[in-house]
Amino acid sequence: SQQGEEDPQALSIQEGENATMNCSYKTSINNLQWYRQNSGRGLVHLILIRSNEREKHSGRLRVTLDTSKKSSSLLITASRAADTASYFCATPPGGTSYGKLTFGQGTILTVHP
Amino acid sequence: GAVVSQHPSRVICKSGTSVKIECRSLDFQATTMFWYRQFPKQSLMLMATSNEGSKATYEQGVEKDKFLINHASLTLSTLTVTSAHPEDSSFYICSAPSGFTDTQYFGPGTRLTVL
Fold first, then answer.
1. Distance of CA B104 to the CA centre of its chain
2. What share of chain B is helix, strand, coil (3-state, %, to 5)?
3. Does the structure show a pLDDT above 90 at B101?
């Protein structure tokens, strides 16, 4: 079953704008991960934020985590057409077989040049 | 970074045939690999955990006799879709954890179309 919901389901912006995607999850977590998937391809790991962290940066990516609300957000700043992809949050079940991931529904991001 | 490959990248087969998909970790060993299934415009659903040297662990609702998994070595897991039917048409993706982290490295996926 899916761990959480992502919103929006689809986001269309112009190059240079910021894109924010949100993810909510249901159970307690050790960490939350964001992945990117180009159309018809595998997933690429973007960033991992641990449950004791509130914010993390990697290049143009900024991830926040609010464990009290069981939610996370991914911000992509100064977006580029090449950022067009689907973005998924994912969580490993806490305390169980490590590496096994449950994915959110995903956000389809389209960046127009 | 670590690389996971899948073969074939796409396959078209007739209903009733069996199809084997390979997942290889190219520059690291993986005692565990994971198989996911993804329908168009949907998220990934975990099908099973492939364990080197032991039986695979299947998620609830996944038929183990339908989706045979063999973890032949520390770098190879195979998924065989037996007696495939059109409803088995999907995008199959494998992944492997590298080292003792929760990060996964994903293969590029295999598009299966059953006619």
1. 14
2. 5, 55, 45
3. no
First to last CA, chain A: 36
Closest to A91 (Cα-Cα) out of A7, A31, A21: A31
The CA R_g of chain A, rounded to the nearest whole Å, is 13
Pairing mode, if any, of strands A43-50 and B19-25? unpaired
Can you give the pLDDT at residue A1?
39
Residue in B80, B90, B96 with CA at minimum distance from that of residue B24: B96
Q: Which of residues 70-109 of A touch B (CB under 8 A)?
A: 88, 90, 92, 97-106, 108
Contact list in A for residue B57 (CB cut-off 8 A) is: 97
Are the Cβ atoms of B46 and A104 closer than 8 angstroms?
no
- B87 by DSSP, 3-state: which? helix
Residue B27 has pLDDT above 90, yes or no: no
Find the residue in B nearest to A85 (Cα).
B41
* Residue to test with chain B: of A5, A102, A103, most B Cβ within 10 A: A103
Q: Kindly report, residue by residue over A9-21, the tens digit of the pLDDT.
A: 999 999 999 999 9
